[in-house]
Amino acid sequence: VEPFDYTLFGNAMPLTDPDEKLRLEFKAKGDRWVINGKLNVKENRRYRLIFDNQTAMAHPVHLHRHTFQLTRIGGRATAGVWKDVVIVPAWRQTEVDFIANQPGPSLFHCHNQRHMEMGFLMLMEYER
To answer: How far is Cα 99 from Cα 87, in angstroms, rounded to an integer?
Structure first.
């Protein structure tokens, strides 16, 4: 089965560079899921999140309280598609841009409940 192609709904218009890029690597460690690093942001800055899926499974990831624009899916540039959940294919990267405009802690997690229960979640926090 071919993965869903989000780029069918977007366009390849060039996007300006974000204020900052943050890479989130998804890995399996034994019976746990892990995401590297921390997700700390500053209010009203535009961030590019690079979801780097280093596993053999696709993951539907969700960022609470924010929407993001898809900017790159499996190496293909896109723009104009806004989501709060995106499926990151196995062994691939997906890039999204969002503006940190909802201060307060926000949950980032895999929408597969079992994965979330096994550690595939983190808090995005605003720096003061």
So the answer is: 20
Q: What is the pTM of this model?
A: 0.93
Distance CA 104, CA 100 (A): 10
Q: Distance between CA atoms of 96 and 77, rounded to whole angstroms?
A: 10
The closest of 93, 90, 74, 57 to 8, measured between CA atoms, is 74
Neighbours of 110 (CB within 10 A): 24
SS3 of residue 115 by DSSP: helix
Q: Under the phi-then-psi rule, with left for phi > 0, alpha for psi from -120 to 50, and beta for the rest, what region is 111?
A: alpha
pLDDT value of position 2? 64
| 118: its two tokens | 């096994």
How confident is the model over 82-118, as pLDDT tens digits? 999 999 999 999 999 999 999 999 999 999 999 999 9
